[in-house]
Amino acid sequence: KKIMKGKTSKDKIIKKAKEEIISIIEEIEKNKEEIGKHLYKAYQKGRIIGECPECKGNLLIKYSDKTKSSFVGCSRFPECKIVYPLPKGARILKSKCEKCGLPLISYGRPRQRACLDPNCGKEKKDKIEVVGKCPRCGNDLVKRSGRYGEFIGCKGFPKCRFTASLEEVKEG
C-alpha cells in the first residue's frame, strides 16, 4: 500500500525484510544449542507411547539398523528387556487394550487393530486336546489353529498330513 501511495520504495521494503530475516537467523545461530535441546526433548516425548508393564519406564518407538524396522522397547534397556515388534506401516493408536492396558496398533491392508503385545489374549495351552485317532497312521488327532481358524490335524505332522475341519469330526 505504501509503495502504491508513493510513501516508500520497493527497494526499501526488500532491504527492511532482509534485515529482519538476518536478525532472526543471527538469533537462531546464537541460541542453537538451547533450541536443539528443546527440540530433542520434544522429539523424545513424542516417541513415548506408554508405560512399561514390567518396570514402569517409558515405552519408546525405536529403530533397528540391523533389521531395518521399527519396534517398541523400554527406555530402561538394558536393565529391562521388554520389546514388542511393530508390523511394517503400523500406527500406534491412542486407545488402550482392555486386557493389558498397552496401546492398540493399526496395521495391514485392510487395516486391522490389535494390542501392541502380540501375545496378549493368547493363553498358552498346556495340554493338547486329543479328539480321536488318525485314520491314516493311527496317531492321535489334535485340535490345532491356523490362519483360517481351528481344525483337526494329525499329531504325526509333518510325516502324516491328515487334516479335517471341526465340523467333519463332529458329524463323523
Can you describe what's shown?
- The protein has 172 residues and is α+β, with helices and mostly antiparallel strands.
- Among the domains are: 48-115, no CATH class; 130-171, no CATH class.
- The chain contains four helices and eleven strands.
- Strands 1-2-3-4 form a four-stranded antiparallel beta sheet. Strands 8-9-10-11 form a four-stranded antiparallel beta sheet. It has a three-stranded antiparallel beta sheet with strand order 5-6-7, with no helix packed on it.
- The longest helix has 21 residues, at 10-30.
- The relative contact order is 0.07.
- The mean pLDDT is 84.
Q: How widely separated are the two ends?
A: 91 Å
Could you tell me the number of beta strands?
11
Largest sheet: 4 strands, antiparallel
Whole-number mean pLDDT:
84
Give the CA-based shape. elongated
Q: Fraction of residues in helices?
A: 25-40%
Strand line-up across the major sheet: 1-2-3-4
The computed structural class is alpha+beta
| Stretches with pLDDT under 50, minimum 5 residues | none
Order of helices and strands: HHHEEEEEEEEEEEH
Based on CA atoms alone, the radius of gyration comes out at: 30 Å
Strand content bin: 25-35%
Number of DSSP helical runs: 4
